[in-house]
Design a protein that fits this description.
Layout (H helix, E strand, L loop, with lengths): L10 H8 L5 E7 L8 E7 L17 H14 L2 E7 L1 H7 L1 H15 L6 E5 L10 E4 L2 H4 L1 H22 L7 H4 L5 H10 L35
Parallel strand pairs: 1-4, 4-5
Antiparallel strand pairs: 1-2, 2-3
Length: 224
């Protein structure tokens, strides 16, 4: 596990606080590359005067560590929320618009109005004129890393719950993401009610529906 020294810091947030921006929101997305389940965006507003140690980008943490950390950082935040877009909305809107919608839902669920929004990566999917993009922000910026853990744990819990209704797909372990066992289940049984049917590989699977042709925005990053 990464050391504290290598972890995300509050340097960006402190710079913005010193410039008079009180509500600085970290934003991060999970579930974009999944085959099933929602796309989720976490939003976190951190306090200035209290710290929680051990926060990392959710991808750097084990599931057990993320779950334990969630219970510490959720009450620590001044405000936090996770916005979700369903598998059906992902198919209907396309991933670019779906990610924007999930972010909007997360921001609207906060009980504080953002002054600045910090987004992981180089793509501004917020688009409200108050955004700062930070490449590798989930590894460098504490509020973004916090948002990533909140979003990841929230979505993982939803997928574990879905596993009870869809046995055989191993959602409790793969959380809807690609893996050999998930692919084998799709080949054998076809998609479930929570699979995203706009993916091209769905054409060859054994089910009776028609693949949804999602709209792709010109500014939407590609997975391939």
């Amino acid at each position: 596990m990464a050391s504290r020294r290598a972890g995300p810091t509050l340097s960006v947030e402190k710079e913005l606080w010193d410039a008079g921006h009180d509500v600085v929101v970290g934003i991060d997305e999970v579930g974009r590359g999944a085959w099933a389940g929602p796309l989720s965006v976490g939003a976190a507003v951190l306090p200035r005067d209290r710290r929680v140690y051990g926060v990392r980008d959710s991808k750097q943490l084990s599931e057990l560590r993320r779950e334990a950390l969630f219970d510490r950082i959720a009450p620590w935040c001044r405000s936090w929320a996770v916005g979700h877009v369903s598998h059906a909305e992902c198919d209907e809107l396309g991933m670019s618009a779906a990610q924007r919608l999930a972010a909007r839902r997360a921001l609207e669920a906060l009980d504080l109005a953002p002054d600045v929004v910090l987004v992981d990566g180089s793509w501004d999917f917020i688009g409200q004129g108050t955004t700062r993009t930070i490449v590798k922000g989930d590894a460098r910026c504490l509020s973004i890393a916090t948002a990533s853990v909140l979003a990841k744990v929230t979505r993982d819990r939803m997928m574990r719950s879905s596993a009870e209704d869809h046995p055989g797909y191993d959602f409790e372990h793969n959380k809807g993401y690609p893996c050999p066992r998930h692919q084998l289940a799709l080949r054998g049984y076809g998609p479930t009610a929570i699979h995203r049917r706009s993916w091209a590989f769905m054409d060859s699977l054994p089910w009776t529906g028609h693949r949804v042709r999602a709209v792709r925005s010109s500014d939407e990053p590609t997975l391939f």
